[in-house]
Amino acid sequence: MYQRPTPPTEPAPTAGRRRFTRKALLAASALGVVTALLAPVRAGAAPAPAPAAPTAATPLAANGQLKVCGRQLCNASGQAVALNGMSTHGTQWYAQCVTDGSLNALANDWRADVLRVSTYVQEGGYETDPAGFTARAQKFIDAAHARGMYAVIDWHMLTPGDPNANLARAKTFFTAMAKKYKDHPGVLYEIANEPSGVSWSAIKSYSEQIIPVIRAQDPDAVVLVGTRAWSSFGVSEGSNESEVVNNPVRASNIMYTFHFYAASHREEYLNTLDRASDKLPVFVTEFGTQNYAGEGANDFTMSQRYLDLMKRKKISWTNWNYSDDHRSGAVFKTGTCNGSNWTGTGVLKEAGVWIRERIRQ
């Protein structure tokens, strides 16, 4: 839930892709040729294409443009859906864990619906190279789409905890993202990862300035709004979901985010998620089976209680994190991202084995 500092590694190359209209992409999906349409176009070495084009069986081709209907995330036919998948670690540190091989494994072996692409703003991230980190995020989003998965575009603001501190940067980033993906059904925009030390009214004000920036380019996509106190609906700072229920963001087609780490966040947090999702559309964009730092022993019993609740209420989720960081919350054993084997359970830590099985179910 909070920052997991880690030593930097070599960055991955950046890339751009052609854009096609949503109508063309959906038609192409039905024909099983999305990979060809989304082939990378850039100078230098391009990633190898996915071995199989998405078909109607993929989450993206089967569900199309998502929307919020009532308190649920719904597909293009208006049916409630729940996406399950993984979040990357910060792409300034672990870009080497987001490869053709690892994404093939996530889509085909893990059978994930969604990849959350986490672009940190500070800590060696976006602010150091806006164009480079924008292109890197687009490369990973495009690769997820080519494999039939949705992508959550995560503006991973963490420190400072007030999203307004990065308002100008956020406008630039989301303008670029919405321009690129305005005709693609496969994106959700997460506009503030974990606000902290700031009032709900300040977060709401930020959201009501960023959402129109996205809507000006992409009027259809779902926007995910961070909540107070590290996206806990305020619980971690002594509040609760009532502040959002009583003063919601003035925008349509949005959901509110909730994060939890099961070894630290117990009954009060679980009950908050239950109550909040009775009144608000909620997407759990980050959680772990460990403590709030993504470290320590796994509490699979408490984690399963959360997953059972989310399954019953059709709440979408992405788990932290798809990397080989040394902490217990990273799914791969340390060193895996330097190799070429990504499938099966032999490359996974205990948490990775557990969460892979839940996604496959």
Describe this structure in words.
The strands form two sheets. The protein has an eight-stranded parallel β-sheet. Strands 1-2 form a two-stranded antiparallel ribbon. The two termini are 25 Å apart. The protein has twelve helices and ten strands. α6 (167-181) packs parallel to α7. The chain is an alpha/beta fold. Helix content is 35%, strand content 14%. α10 links the parallel β8 (254-261) and β9. 52% of the residues are buried.
* Class from helix and strand fractions: alpha/beta
Order of helices and strands: HHHEEEHEHEHEHEHHEHEHEH
Q: How would a crystallographer describe the biggest sheet?
A: 8 strands, parallel
The coarse silhouette is globular
Instruction: List low-pLDDT spans.
Output: 1-56
SSE blueprint and pairings:
Layout (H helix, E strand, L loop, with lengths): L21 H10 L2 H4 L21 H5 L3 E3 L2 E3 L9 E4 L12 H10 L4 E7 L9 H17 L3 E7 L10 H15 L5 E4 L9 H18 L4 E4 L2 H4 L10 H5 L7 E8 L5 H13 L2 E7 L11 H13 L4 E4 L29 H11 L1
Parallel strand pairs: 3-4, 3-10, 4-5, 5-6, 6-7, 7-8, 8-9
Antiparallel strand pairs: 1-2
Helix pairs in contact: 6-7
